[in-house]
Amino acid sequence: MAARRQSRNGQKTRASHIIEWVVAALGVLTLCGSVAFLIYTALTEEDAPPSIGFHTVAVHSVSGGYLVEVALRNSGSQTAAKLKIAGLLSRDGQVVETSEASFDYVPSRSERRGGLFFTNDPRKFQLRFQAQGYEKP
Amino acid sequence: MEYPSASIQAMQPLARAFGGAILFAMPMLMTMEMWWLGLYMDRLRLCLFLVLAFPLLVGLSYHAGFEKTFRLRDDVTDAFVAYAVGFVASGLALFAFGVLTGDDSPGELLGKISLQAVPASMGAILARSQLGIEKAEEREKGRNARYAGEIFLMGAGALFFSFNVAPTEEVMLITYKIGETRVLAIMAASLTIMHAFTYTLGFRGQADPAEGTRAVKFFFFTVVGYAVSFGISWYVLWTFGRLDGAPLVQQVTAAAVLGLPASIGAAAARLIL
Predict the structure, then answer these.
(1) Cβ pair A31:B83 closer than 8 A
(2) Tens-digit pLDDT profile for residues B23-78
(3) Are strands A52-62 and A111-118 parallel, antiparallel or unpaired?
(4) pTM reported for the whole predicted model
(5) Mutating which of B7, B14, B43 best tests the A interface, going by the most A Cβ atoms within 10 A?
(6) Which of A42, A64, B154, B177 is within CB 3.0–4.6 Å of B266 for a Cys-Cys bond?
(7) Where are the domains of chain B?
(8) Which residues pair with A30 in a beta bridge?
(9) What is the pLDDT of residues A42-69, one digit of tens each?
(10) Which residues in chain A are contacts of B83 at CB distance < 8 A?
(11) Cβ of A37 and B54 within 8 Å?
(12) How many domains does chain A have?
């Protein structure tokens, strides 16, 4: 009851005082930490264009063909928007089938996943991926 | 139980701040352009925005804070509390929406959250005065300080309202479509709406018509307020990189387009806060 009367008068109880200080300290940490991190990133990161690396996550049989799950990683420091990628199945240097996909955003140093559908079994061919083009956001 | 226990009592202002953060930031938390901007916008501009957000929060705490504050130190503490609450609330919401994933880099996570944390923390600060029972008593302020305070609140309202609209593609799309005549019309409309909101429509909290002559009020509040809104619109668009590579006339047009919601936000802030 005492606590209630106190808070009605706009006085802080001891518990609320401690909580407030803890949360405020958290605020100092997040704000200053964010600012420091952003400045550090801006200063150390050289302006490298998007560079896309691929790896196959899994190949599934699906109705009407096959699905290749692919993960792409942008190791550049710029974000690629509207990135178009293609997967090519080939045998003896002859491309048998191509499949395309596009990604809204592949941010720098981040990974994005997608899938490409094929009618031929990718496991029986040579599969390679190609980044085709992007827009600078 | 007759009364809530002391620990619940102690958590109440925080919970209220959290509620305010969610309430104010929700439209932006659910705007995909905000997520994309968080990851690709210029790091130094984002950094500058965070740095500028701090005095804004301190000022808001002073004028409309969620704790009765009498000293600068309390306002600074409140600003940090609000930022922490805004940051956590934004992070939780974005995580709940599946916007933050394990594949994101630390920079991406930080960008997405901290951009949202600013409007969210504005909501956290305002929660006390708007959602709470108590309202900070009007302090003794000089005439000039009160005027500066009003312009400050208009700026805060302009920033908050323009932030809802600025990330969308539509602002630039309207800029491309609008043409010179309509821009001038929109600017005139902004001024008219602002003036009407503050002086003639009879909203609660409206300025006392007795103080100052009509022309003086129009200049000192409406025109100055519009100039502030226009400048803030320009700054927000620049921060989001929307003006990069655009000719000056397009930059002015875009600022005028965004200036419409910004000035309405400015006028409304004067009434509400």
Answers:
(1) yes
(2) 999 999 999 999 999 988 999 999 999 999 999 999 998 887 545 556 788 889 99
(3) unpaired
(4) 0.83
(5) B43
(6) B154
(7) 1-139, 143-273
(8) none
(9) 888 878 899 999 999 999 999 989 999 9
(10) 27, 30-31
(11) no
(12) 2
